[in-house]
Write a structure and sequence with these properties.
Keywords: Membrane, Nucleotide-binding, Nucleus, Transmembrane, Transmembrane helix, Ubl conjugation pathway. It is found in: Nucleus. It is built from 21 helices and 13 strands. It has about 550 residues and is of the alpha/beta class. It is elongated and about 85 Å long.
C-alpha cells in the first residue's frame, strides 16, 4: 500500500502538467518548478499574468502591493473574492486566491508600494529568478531595470491602459538552446555522410524492378546516393538544379525534391561571442566553447548530429523483414552517431569545466544532450536598457512608424458605406439622409501613436500628480495638457513637426488609467508567455516593445 502511494505521488506532476510537458518537456517543466517569481502590483494585469504561471507550476511567487481592495477591484479583478475583501490587503487577497489554484506552489506577499521598494531596497529583487513589473510609471521602470540587470535577474514589464497596453522584456543577455523554430530542416547530413552511413547506403540497390520495393527504400538512402553522384560530376559552383533533375529521375516525390533544394548549413560562430570561457561563464557559453572545439575536430565542420529523422511509411505489400530492416538500420545508424557525438561533447564540456575550476557535474547530462540535439538552433538575445531606449531611441524607426500610421475612419454603430475611405483627425457625428441611424465615427491609430502616448501619460502624471482623465471634471484641460506633453515628447524623440490625432489623445484621457479586465487578461497572457520562454530557455522571447491596440484589435512589435 505504501509503495502504491509513493508511485502515485511521483506520477502526480506528470499527470497534472501532462499537456504542457508535451510542449516544453521535462527540462522546461523542471526549470519552471525551480523558478521564483516576484510580481509588482497585483491589479488585473499582474494577477492574470501570475495566474497563468501558477497553473503552469511555477516554484514560488511573491506578490508586492501596498494597496487595499476597493469596490472597483471587484469588477475587474477576478482574483479578488467578494465584498468581504474590500478594505483588506490586495496582495493578501490575490495571494490567497492564487494559492488555491495550485497548492504545490509556494506563495508569499508583501504589503508595500512597489515604487517605494524599488527606491529604498534594491537588493530585495536579487533573490528572484524573474520579476514581473506591472503598471509602473517610466521613472520606476528605469530604476528597476538597472537593479535587475546588476543582479542578473530577468525582468518583464507589462501594462494595460484602457484599450491599450504593452509588454517588454529586459535582460542583459538571454540564451536559448531549444528555440523551436516553426520551419527547420532535419539534420540528415546528406552533404557530409559519416562512414557508417556510407557503408549502409552502399548495401542498398536502387535498381530494383519492383516499384513497391523501390517506394519503401528509406529516402535518406536515395538522397545520399544521388547527392554523391551529383557531387562527383559537378563542381561546387554548379547550379543545384542539376541535382534536382537527378532526384526526379530517381522516382523521388516532388515534395522531397523541394526539401533537398532547401538544404543549407545552419551552424555559424561569431568570434566575439565565443571568447575563452572562465569561472563566471554561463553553462551555455561553456557548451558553446565545447561545440566550437567539436566542430573544428571530431565534427569535421559539422555540429553534433541530432539523431532523429522524419517518420517513414511502411506497407504490408513489401516484405516485412526487408522493410523493417531498412528502417530500423537507418534509425539505429543516426541514433548511434548522435550518441557518439554526445559522448565526445560531454567529455569536452567536462574538460573545460575542469580547466576553469568548476564542478564537473555542474552541467547535467540531459542539458548537454539537449544542447547537442539543438546545436543548429541556438539563439542569443540581447536587450537594450529601458533607459537607453527612452533617452536615445532609434529616431529613424520612430519616424518611419509614424509615417506609416493608418488613420482610418471606423463606425461604432453600424457600417458607414460612404465614408469608409475618409480620413480625418477628430470625432464626428453623421446623419445619413433617409435614415434614422446616427453614426459615431472615430479614427484609429497605429502602434507608435500608443507608444508615444503611453509615455506621455507618465510625464503628465509626474507634472500634475494624476493621470489624465483620472478624476471627474477638467477633461478638456487634461486633453490640452496631454497634447502639449505628447508634442514635447515627440520633439525630445527627434520628431519635431510630428503630430498625433486629436481623437487618440481624447481616447487616452477617456481611459483614465483604467485597467479593463478583458485587456488586462490579454496583456497578462502575453506577459506570462514571455516569462515561460525566459524561464524554460525555449522558444525565442520578443525583441522589442509589444504594443496592443484594442481600438483596432491590432498589435505590433516596435524595435527602438
Amino acid at each position: 500500500m505504501k509503495r502504491k502511494k509513493e508511485e502515485a505521488t511521483m506520477s502526480e506532476p506528470k499527470t497534472k502538467y501532462d499537456r504542457q510537458l508535451r510542449i516544453w518537456g521535462e527540462l522546461g517543466q523542471a526549470a519552471l518548478e525551480e523558478a521564483s517569481i516576484c510580481l509588482l502590483n497585483c491589479g488585473p494585469t499582474g494577477s492574470e499574468a501570475l495566474k497563468n504561471l501558477v497553473l503552469g507550476g511555477v516554484g514560488s511567487f511573491t506578490v508586492v502591493d501596498g494597496s487595499k481592495v476597493e469596490l472597483g477591484d471587484l469588477g475587474n479583478n477576478f482574483m479578488v473574492d467578494d465584498e468581504r475583501s474590500v478594505g483588506q490587503s490586495k496582495a493578501k487577497s490575490v495571494c490567497a486566491f492564487l494559492q488555491e489554484l495550485n497548492d504545490s506552489v509556494k506563495a508569499t506577499f508583501i504589503e508595500e508600494n512597489p515604487d517605494t521598494l524599488i527606491s529604498t531596497n534594491p537588493f530585495f529583487f536579487s533573490q528572484f529568478t524573474l520579476v514581473i513589473a506591472t503598471q509602473l510609471v517610466e521613472d520606476s521602470m528605469v530604476k528597476l531595470d538597472r537593479i535587475c540587470r546588476e543582479a542578473n535577474v530577468m525582468l518583464v514589464f507589462a501594462r494595460s491602459y484602457g484599450l491599450s497596453g504593452f509588454v517588454r522584456v529586459s535582460v542583459k543577455e538571454h540564451t536559448v538552446i531549444d528555440s523551436k523554430p516553426d520551419h527547420f530542416l532535419d539534420d540528415l547530413r546528406l552533404n557530409n555522410p559519416w562512414p557508417e552511413l556510407k557503408s549502409f547506403v552502399e548495401t542498398i540497390d536502387l535498381n530494383v524492378s519492383d516499384p513497391v520495393a523501390h517506394k519503401h527504400i528509406p529516402y535518406v538512402v536515395i538522397l545520399v546516393k544521388v547527392a554523391d553522384e551529383w557531387t562527383r560530376s559537378h563542381s561546387v559552383q554548379d547550379d543545384i538544379y542539376g541535382l534536382w533533375m537527378r532526384i526526379t529521375t530517381k522516382k523521388l516525390s516532388k515534395q522531397l525534391s523541394k526539401f533537398l533544394l532547401r538544404v543549407e548549413s545552419a551552424l555559424r560562430f561569431n568570434n566575439d561571442t565565443c571568447a575563452e570561457p572562465n569561472s563566471n561563464s554561463s553553462d551555455f557559453w561553456v557548451m558553446v566553447a565545447a561545440l566550437k572545439e567539436f566542430v573544428s575536430n571530431e565534427g569535421d565542420g559539422e555540429a553534433p548530429l541530432e539523431g532523429s529523422i522524419p517518420d517513414m511509411t511502411s506497407s504490408t505489400e513489401l516484405s516485412a523483414t526487408a522493410s523493417l530492416h531498412c528502417c530500423f538500420s537507418t534509425d539505429t545508424i543516426y541514433q548511434s552517431k548522435a550518441e557518439a557525438d554526445f559522448l565526445v561533447m560531454e567529455k569536452r564540456v567536462k574538460n573545460i569545466l575542469k580547466k576553469i575550476g568548476r564542478d564537473l557535474s555542474s552541467i547535467s547530462k540531459p542539458t548537454i544532450k539537449s544542447f547537442c540535439k539543438n546545436a543548429r538552433k541556438l539563439k542569443v538575445c540581447r536587450y537594450r536598457m529601458v533607459e537607453d531606449e527612452f533617452s536615445n531611441p532609434c529616431v529613424t524607426e520612430i519616424q518611419k512608424c509614424l509615417a506609416d500610421e493608418d488613420y482610418r475612419w471606423q463606425c461604432l454603430h453600424g457600417v458607414c458605406p460612404f465614408h469608409m475611405n475618409t480620413k480625418a483627425s477628430n470625432f464626428e457625428r453623421l446623419l445619413f439622409y433617409g435614415s434614422s441611424y446616427a453614426y459615431i465615427v472615430y479614427c484609429g491609430s497605429g502602434a507608435m501613436g500608443f507608444y508615444v502616448l503611453l509615455r506621455a501619460v507618465d510625464r503628465f502624471t509626474a507634472n500634475y500628480n494624476k493621470f489624465p482623465g483620472q478624476f471627474d471634471g477638467g477633461m478638456d484641460e487634461d486633453i490640452s495638457r496631454l497634447k502639449t506633453t505628447a508634442l514635447s515628447l515627440l520633439a525630445d524623440l527627434g520628431c519635431n513637426g510630428s503630430v498625433l490625432p486629436d481623437d487618440l489623445i481624447n481616447e487616452m484621457c477617456r481611459f483614465g488609467a483604467s485597467e479593463l479586465h478583458v485587456v488586462a487578461a490579454f496583456i497578462g497572457g502575453i506577459a506570462s508567455q514571455e516569462v515561460i520562454k525566459l524561464v524554460t530557455k525555449q522558444f525565442v522571447p520578443m525583441l522589442g516593445t509589444y504594443i496592443f491596440n484594442g481600438i483596432d484589435h491590432k498589435s505590433q512589435l516596435l524595435t527602438l
